[in-house]
Amino acid sequence: MARSTSPKAVIFDIGGVCVLSPLEAIATYENKNSIPSDWINFAISRSAPNGFWQRLERGEIKIDREFFRGFNADLRNENLWKEYHTSFRNSKKKLKDVANPTQLGDHVSLKAEAADSRPTDQDRGAQSSAEPNQKPSQSESKEQGEGRPSLSKLAKDTTIGDPVSIESEDVAQGAASDFSSVSKQSTSSSSPSPSEATSALKTLPPLPEIDGESLFWSMMAHSRNPDPYVFPALLRLEKLPLKDRPILAALSNTVIFPPDHPYSRLSDAPESDPRSHFDIFVSSAEVGLRKPDPEIYKLAVERLDKLDKEKGGSGVTAEDCVFLDDIGENLKTAKQMSMKTIRVHRGKTWRAVKELEQATGTELMDDKTRRSKL
After folding, report:
1. For residues 32 and 294, what is the distance between their CA atoms, to the nearest angstrom?
2. In whole angstroms, how far apart are CA 50 and each of 44, 181, 283?
3. Cis link prior to 294 (omega < 30° from 0)?
4. Which residue has the higher pLDDT, 268 or 63?
5. Spatial separation of the C-alpha atoms in residues 34 and 28, rounded to whole Å
6. At a CB cut-off of 8 Å and minimum separation 6, what does 258 contact?
7. Which contacts of 121-124 are long-range, i.e. CB under 8 A and separated by 24 or more positions?
8. Helical segments of 138-188, H only
9. pTM for this model (two decimals)
């Protein structure tokens, strides 16, 4: 495969890239419990920067009773509930009526994108050689079927651990505004008039009951499943001779599990655990920084640079890196630092693999996948 200037490093996000997005678990929980679509996503993201979820991802607090108490409180914030009904849902309604241009330039309707937002059985089998002994249980299959995202979710992205950002493409202002957020739109022309807001508050439904602990662990469990395209591509890169492949790094907003929890023990994890396949792993909870803070990107580049020089290389700069993420805001920071970026779209992650092939000059799909998708 022909290649241009190959990157010295490829940096992967984890949730929504190497593994399935926890946003799907949120959608399933909302659907099962008759919770208004996107409320959980909205409540967590709008609790930033010092909500309990954000503090957990910065490693400031532990996963314990105190965290779940605070997490539940964030999910029952009355002021955010009012804002959700008076501003956010109004913005969403307008967004649904507009075709959503994807990063690859093909305009697809939100309805069409929703229909293709999860891998099919054929998709999951396409790279089966890279996912040993992974067969979903009957209950898991049922949950996945019920967890199809709503149309409005396709205007948002997520990350692992940091599962929930409501950043969306600003369709109303064109593709040039890819990184505008729905929350920012709520303060502009989409904001309701005072009379509309007053009317909405009079009919405000009660806050939904949410079991934050149950929700949290369902999100973490869902994120244990490898993506059927990106993860096999990572394995193929890893198996290349060291002299022929880029340094493989992870840059992810993650959490630290309790020492006695199975998820914290890499030795007990199957081959499908992404943590065992990177040369460098930068975890937000371990370094006290979260994407999209530029400082965590700088830290990742510093570690890449050090490793390359230790191996006798000339070092690594941001310009030498390709960064894959499913969140527009995270990609924006990477671009500002001069990294090459690849947007990973939920349900269409094979497209990101195709772009990564072009960037690295390496074939990263098996023949069956290539025939079915290209």
Report:
1. 38
2. 10, 19, 18
3. no
4. 63
5. 10
6. 62, 63, 64, 264
7. 122/372, 123/228, 123/229, 123/350, 124/228
8. 138-146, 182-185
9. 0.72
